[in-house]
Amino acid sequence: MSAIANPLIGQPGGWTLPSRGKVAMSCLIIAESAIFTIFVVAYLYYLGKSVTGPTPKQVLETPIFYTFCLLYSSFTIHRAAKLLERGRRIPFLAWWLLTIVLGGLFLFGTGQEWHRLIYERGLTVSTNLFGTTYYSLVGLHASHLIAGLAMLVVVLSFAVRGRVDQEHSARIQVLSMYWHFVDAVWVVVFIVVYVIGR
Amino acid sequence: MSTEAIAIERLQATGKPWTETVHEWVTTVDHKRIGILYMVYALLFLVIGGVEAMIMRIQLMHSYNNFVSPQVFNRMFTMHGTTMIFFVAVPILLGFANYLVPLMIGAWDMAFPRLNAFSFWLSALGGFLLYFSFLGGSGLYGAGNAPDVGWWAYAPLTAKAFSPGHSSDYWTIAVMLSGFGTVGTAINIIATILCMRCPGMHLGRMPLLAWLNLVMSGMVLITITPLTAAQFMLLVDRYLGGHFFDTQAGGSAVLWMHFFWIFGHPEVYVLILPCFAFVSEIIPVFSRKPIFGYPVMVGATVCIGFVSMSVWAHHMFTIGMNSYANSFFTITTMAVGVPTGIKIFNWLGTMWGGRIQFKTPMLFCIGFLFQFLLAGLTGIMLASAPFDWQLGNSYFVVAHFHYVIVGGILFALFAAFYYWYPKITGRMLSEALGKLHFWLFVIGFHITFDVMHVPGILGMPRRIYTYEPGRGWDTLNLIVSFGALIQTIAILIFVWNLISSYRKGARAGNDPWDAWTLEWSVSSPPPVYNFASLPAVASRRPLWDLKHPEDPDSRYE
Amino acid sequence: MDRPTISGRRRIELTAVYLGCAAAVARANNSTSIFAPASTPAQEIFGLSMFVLAVTGIIFVVVFALLTYAVVKFRGKTTDAAREPAQVYGSTQIELAWTVIPVLIVAVLFLATARVIHAIQDAPKPASAVDVTVIGHQFWWEFRYPKLGIVTANEMHIPLSDPAHPTPTFLKLLSADTDHSFWVPNLAGKTDLIPNRVNEMWMDPHRVGTYLGQCAQYCGTQHAKMLLRVSVDTAADFDAWVRAQQQAAAQDPKVVAGKRVFETTACINCHAVNGTAGDGRFGPDLTHLMSRGTLASGAAGNTTALLRLWIQNPDAIKPGSLMPAMKLNDADLDALVAYLETLR
Q1: What is the ipTM of this complex?
Q2: C3 assigned to some structural domain
Q3: Is residue C138 assigned to a domain?
Q4: Does residue A108 surpass a pLDDT of 50?
């Protein structure tokens, strides 16, 4: 094959291509965005179309604190990734752990809200269109959060054993992209469900 | 079929126990083997889908025929549509992309080999689940209960009330799994093309096949996923008592239509773009000229990608949208015709002034050009909303999209098989059988699908298992069914050619067509990891440069 | 699987259905060609489609000729096998030409289309219009004339529309279950009937006659035999039909036994005959059953033999329809059929 090589071409060292991890994660994010878009469209389309109660106004409470937790976790994971890039493993571990705690808190908040809606307000997925669209949209987000948390915990388990190093920084950044995406989706879900939807 | 043949030959050659060979194929992460798995899997389903088509054609041969019951007929068209789109067209095109893209851009493998294998097996599981519905749709005692909701599965026909049992669930989950697999492979193709190109192959030098697959994969990301989301909603309705498409509780049947066609129309372009890619590689080689207007071809492709996202509701002209929406989707749909027309003219420009060699792959490409032209023009008729109020959901539409899918996609696929089979197996396909296959298939195709337009104009709706005598549809349907028989014979010749040439075909050598892209620079079949050392390229036609050092392409770029 | 073996008796039954249908079709104007318009919307579409066909036809001829010319003219000859032709990479002027020309063609086609969309969809409704509410059911059509107080099924009667004094018919389209589509090609394009949604369409027939059509949106097992007839009557005939339909059901003392069978079996769960205990709405209204030419939404002619068959074994005529086999004894069946045949 070297016969095809043209002497005019520089050395392979001068040939740089984007990171495949980041490209793939960007693609996944585009695909996931399309899925969320469809759920958001369904939510908005069915707003006020339920034939029976309860309505969002009657039962939803704005989860300001938990939203803050999740948004802050975007900052903490960014911080952790930057620290690892500079090879500072212990601070990385601390910020990583904090991210998991914040994500866990948010998930707890969602669980608490669902418990309240189901057992106190009697709203389930089969109650009315609001129930169907609400649990599907928020549940889809929560399931992405759970997947993200699982990956964060796997990294944590390696990190406490000292197996996460500067050389893994690129992969950590890919994971961090996913986490930012889950956060960004929550911003949209929050606006749709708690701001427009009420 | 040919994996078995390959497996047997490997076994004989190496004396390995067959279990080991199977194990190798099941656990492979090599892009070429996965590509072959995709193709064999799709060919298997092509035969199954073809049998379903024949059952329908026999039933419709004359009015009030009693070959099958309405229930069976409805299952046949549902399974035929679902199979041909999700388990034939998509996997076979992904198979070619898998096999060819790394070779053509000078890469050792796909960007994520294990994701590649995972995606294939997900799609494969989808197909097997779909067919398991024949057994499991209503439990074993209700055997034969495959889904019967049509491949669009319009709400509320899929609601528990109208579709009891589990056949619709199998349909939903099968299509969902195939969707996940497709998205996984699309991500892989994009990452491979963007991150694995050999030195010198910047985007403007990629073979058009890589470009078109890149655009196709990008479209997959945003068009298959809405269907996945809608399927998820359908499962929420069916299993958790949700109301997304429950019209009794305020749900909307129209919303499902939108979600389905937001997937469904771009899907047509997802299928046709890789076929444009085959044609764009094959026509230049057999015209002995470079592709005419490479940058315009790329631009037109990207343009098609974008515009095709805004045309979906032309499948819904009859649902009672207001006149502004109907006008909007008319203009966007007609607009897609412009970049598509540009492509046809560029292929024409490529042949113009060339020295056309009528080898079998080129014959299929020429067939493709004529038929795709006609398919595009009937598409323009259907794009005109009022015309569609008459023609929509009639046999005219059935003829139109079979013109696209068989006359366009399948012809391009046959061209690709004849063109790359030597690379994949190391043996040439028989030219004599190939030409017989071509002419029989052309004749059968035109008998079936040219005539099929007419009953549509005479008011025959699609998806009817029988029709009254005296409506003037009998003779036409008999001719259509007869053409289908000829096509079946042609396909059998093709399958026989695939099998017999594997043993007896002439040795292909590295470069049987005197072609110009990188896959022809390696042995046939290519070695594991493709290239001993990564090639470097200086133009769009690296092998032309090599063969014509006195006048290389690189001088003009 | 679902296919029952065809017994000798079944064959005879099927032959009866076949003959009944053939006779029913023969009575109607059996060309459902979209190119035989008999009403303004269909006429407008016909005009547009001829224009579109002409334009696409010209494109086809031109491109077909170019392709054929290229394939024949530039075929490789054995004499120059070794030589490669001139390597041409493209031409901006040519590309520009074959971009601009299609854009202009698309613009023209779009304007012609938009005009017809507007003409059909945004047509004003005159005060003299006849209103009909069409409700799609699995697998039959319900027609209600709200201003006239008429309920009928499967065969719609509408008046001829004189261009000087138009009496167009405006349809309100609803569905009771799944999606259907109302399509009578001679009169208008199709429009879907979708649950939870109200659609509209109109027609103003210019010729008297019976026009055939059928459901054009897959709606379940018997989508194929959800046939549709529109009878276009002169003003006088239409008025006579309206008056007949507005009558109460016939009360013939000779068939009280049959009426009792009707009122004491499952018939009344689904069917209505006005003035009796029957007020079911799942099946067609039978008050004036004998005024219709067909049974089972056009699947069989309306004859005594077929009516008996339809009641006892609907699957022989329309397998998968929602009409249950009534399994009556012979005496009850005779009485019931005798009763139904008085419902003129």
Answers
A1: 0.93
A2: no
A3: yes
A4: yes
